[in-house]
Amino acid sequence: MKFCIFIAYYQSVIMDTVNLKVEHKSTQLISILSEHLSGKMNLARIKFFGLFICALCKVQTVCFEKLATAFETNAATLSSLRRIQRFMESYILDTELIAQLVFKILPHEPPYRLTLDRTNWKFGETDINILALAIVYQGVAFPVLITVLDRAGNSDTQERIEIMNRYIRLFGQQTIDCLLADREFVGKDWIAYLNHNKIRYHIRIRENFYVDDPRTGKQCKAFWMFADLKCGQGRALHRIYRIKG
Q1: CA-to-CA distance for 159 and 144, rounded, in angstroms?
Q2: Which of 30, 69, 95, 222 is deepest in the core (most CB within 10 A)?
Q3: pLDDT tens track for 62-99
Q4: Confidence band (pLDDT; 50, 70, 90) for 204?
Q5: Widest CA span in the chain
Q6: Looking at domain 106-204, which of 3.40.50.300, 3.30.1360.10, 3.30.420.10, 3.40.50.620 is its CATH number?
Q7: How remote is the C-alpha of 77 from its chain's centroid?
Q8: Angle at 50 between CA 44 and CA 54, to 5 degrees
Q9: Cα–Cα distance measured from residue 118 to residue 99, given in angstroms and rounded to the nearest whole number
């Protein structure tokens, strides 16, 4: 299940990043994968990986039977199906290896704007809940690291710190320009981690959060500070304020 989630999440990322069209056959993608994965994944698995990604882009589903019909090989559909089943049963994908691949083929150079987000849905009665760290390029977020949470609901501080630490270990803190995140990603310990590691951040807050101005001692709800602005206008507050500690 986790492999299917991961591949479905990455299929368009890899294809878009290397600027391939599915109708150009999987050989181009296999060549690019071989360049980056040679010595870390054997050739048979690299070829399968390329065929699998192209098939996903064609049929837009993780149904094995449908994927098998879209494999660009001379093998019978049943043989392709068995190949998929064997791979899923026995192979453990190194997700950090794939992250390094995506990082290498990104069309621009660091430092990068990172974005942290979470997506969730249900598969029958099972909650699929993914925490993703992505690199932003021209309005598109390219996921590089994901964590499949074992429950529904928000991520916690430790899970956010762990995924950031994985990124820093793989690519270095110097590749981070800033971090963008939504209203879910707040909390005293989390912000303290970002401050301690000198990671710039732009994080939304809830409009009903109370904001304290230490200079005046006054407190108000966040939206009151911007209530007079019209659509499209902005305001920068160049002082230190306290929010939730």
Answers
A1: 16
A2: 30
A3: 899 999 999 988 899 999 999 999 998 988 888 898 89
A4: very high
A5: 75
A6: 3.30.420.10
A7: 32
A8: 145
A9: 17
